[in-house]
């Protein structure tokens, strides 16, 4: 492991998703230097992996990719991808010290030109997590077609050290002995935009714990619907059949005290309706059913979006699904209690989509002075009037790091956090005579 290098920036943004990118660009456009630390090999977060956004049904990639490119080429922004934030603490001199660890890509970032020759010649195939596990990727690859940066990363767990990638690399960028590289950042202000994770299916035994064929998550359905998805159309994963009957099960891991998750994840109703509308266009003869507890259409034009889905013939059943199991022919049995008085019923579908809830994407306790609420999301002492301000002077937060929310609210909060940070930086730079 190499010795720690120390770099100075005006601000640190933790998380390179849509909220983190918006905050970084807002600060950088005001001539503040910004470091963006992202744990994945590419920036873009969850949004770059979506098909479309609700309620406008705009292309998610068309919105996210320009921001990714703008951040990558901005003179005041430096991206630290494939990095973990180990600790963040005040250092006693009025600044923050952030210790990050650059995980080994086993590819020299300064030499890699993104030609993907290593990927084309690699003989090892493994399931591609960026395609929901439905397609295969190579053991060394650029994460996805519009990844930023376009730098390959080698999966050491699956690489068999055959040497094919190193042989064909025109710039000798492949280095099998690369080690983690620790870096220290000294900054004046911090914006935490660490996003969210989703509830693991293993926590829901009544829904098959992720082992029932043709029961998938909503993020996997996003990949099936995406124009650059694994099949280029919607097919049932188990046998490649076009599904004639598709069901969405709501509140999977949300509003569930048995899992310790009593809150609503806010976006699940709307993304299920969005996916159902897209499916009705892709598979016009398919029957689409949404099993819901309550429809929570909370944003601008969201109620109209819900009514449009009803008008399109999407079937809404007010029910709580109790059990899901598969059959030998690939069909899925959904057993539920109809809340409209029809009792316990079992319906069969070709494909079932679980609308999984949101969980905190990162736990700052012990690594930072930040505190969390009982639900695990970051605590804001001024949640009703200034939610982006944390309990630590100089640290701000935005997006799903503070709690479940949609893309529109995440972007708005990111700009609010950047505005608070810019005001703070203006005074702190004067007080400390700071030059990054």
From TrEMBL:
Belongs to the HdrA family. Residues 102-132, 150-179 form the 4Fe-4S ferredoxin-type domain. Pfam families: Fer4 (PF00037), Pyr_redox_2 (PF07992). Its cofactor is FAD. The keyword Metal-binding applies. This is Heterodisulfide reductase subunit A. The keyword Phosphoprotein does not apply. The lineage of its organism: Bacteria, Pseudomonadati, Thermodesulfobacteriota, Syntrophobacteria, Syntrophobacterales. Gene3D superfamilies: 3.30.70.20, FAD/NAD(P)-binding domain. InterPro entries: 4Fe4S_Fe-S-bd, 4Fe4S_Fe_S_CS, FAD/NAD-bd_sf, FAD/NAD-binding_dom, HdrA-like.
């Amino acid at each position: 492991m190499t010795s720690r290098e120390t770099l100075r920036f005006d601000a640190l943004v933790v998380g390179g998703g849509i909220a983190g990118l918006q905050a970084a660009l807002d600060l950088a456009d005001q001539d503040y230097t910004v470091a963006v630390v992202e744990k994945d090999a590419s920036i873009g977060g969850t949004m770059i992996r979506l098909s479309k956004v609700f309620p406008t049904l705009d292309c998610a990639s068309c919105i996210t990719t320009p921001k990714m490119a703008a951040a990558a080429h901005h003179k005041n922004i430096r991206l630290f991808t494939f990095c973990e934030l180990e600790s963040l603490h005040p250092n006693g001199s009025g600044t923050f010290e952030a210790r990050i660890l650059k995980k080994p890509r086993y590819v020299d970032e300064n030499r890699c030109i993104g030609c993907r020759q290593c990927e084309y010649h690699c003989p090892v195939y493994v399931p591609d997590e960026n395609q929901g596990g439905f397609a295969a990727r190579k053991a060394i690859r650029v994460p996805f077609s519009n990844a930023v940066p376009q730098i390959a990363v080698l999966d050491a767990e699956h690489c068999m050290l055959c040497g094919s990638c190193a042989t064909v690399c025109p710039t000798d960028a492949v280095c099998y002995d690369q080690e983690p590289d620790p870096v220290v950042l000294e900054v004046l202000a911090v914006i935490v935009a660490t996003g969210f994770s989703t509830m693991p299916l293993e926590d829901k035994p009544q829904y098959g714990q992720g082992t029932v064929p043709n029961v998938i998550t909503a993020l996997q359905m996003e990949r099936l619907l995406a124009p650059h998805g694994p099949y280029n159309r919607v097919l049932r994963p188990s046998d490649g059949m076009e599904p004639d009957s598709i069901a969405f099960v709501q509140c999977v891991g949300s509003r569930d005290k048995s899992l310790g998750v009593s809150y609503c994840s806010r976006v699940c109703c709307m993304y299920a309706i969005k996916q159902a509308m897209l499916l009705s266009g892709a598979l016009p003869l398919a029957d689409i059913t949404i099993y819901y507890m309550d429809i929570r259409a909370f944003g601008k034009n969201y109620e109209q979006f819900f009514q449009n889905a009803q008008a399109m013939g999407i079937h809404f059943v007010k029910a709580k699904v109790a059990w899901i199991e598969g059959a030998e022919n690939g069909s899925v049995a959904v057993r539920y209690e109809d809340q409209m008085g029809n009792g316990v019923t079992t319906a069969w579908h070709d494909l079932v989509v679980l609308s999984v809830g949101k969980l905190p994407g990162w736990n700052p306790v012990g690594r930072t002075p930040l505190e969390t609420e009982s639900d695990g999301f970051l605590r804001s002492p001024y949640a009703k009037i200034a939610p982006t301000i944390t309990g630590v002077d100089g640290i701000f937060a935005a997006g799903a790091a503070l709690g479940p929310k949609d893309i529109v609210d995440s972007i708005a909060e990111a700009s609010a956090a950047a505005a608070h940070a810019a005001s703070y930086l203006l005074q702190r730079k004067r007080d400390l005579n700071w030059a990054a």
